[in-house]
Amino acid sequence: DAGVIQSPRHEVTEMGQEVTLRCKPISGHNSLFWYRQTMMRGLELLIYFNNNVPIDDSGMPEDRFSAKMPNASFSTLKIQPSEPRDSAVYFCASRETPGAQPQHFGDGTRLSIL
Amino acid sequence: AQTVTQSQPEMSVQEAETVTLSCTYDTSESNYYLFWYKQPPSRQMILVIRQEAYKQQNATENRFSVNFQKAAKSFSLKISDSQLGDTAMYFCAFMKLPIFGNEKLTFGTGTRLTIIP
Question: A45 and chain B: CB distance < 8 Å anywhere?
Answer without folding.
Answer: yes
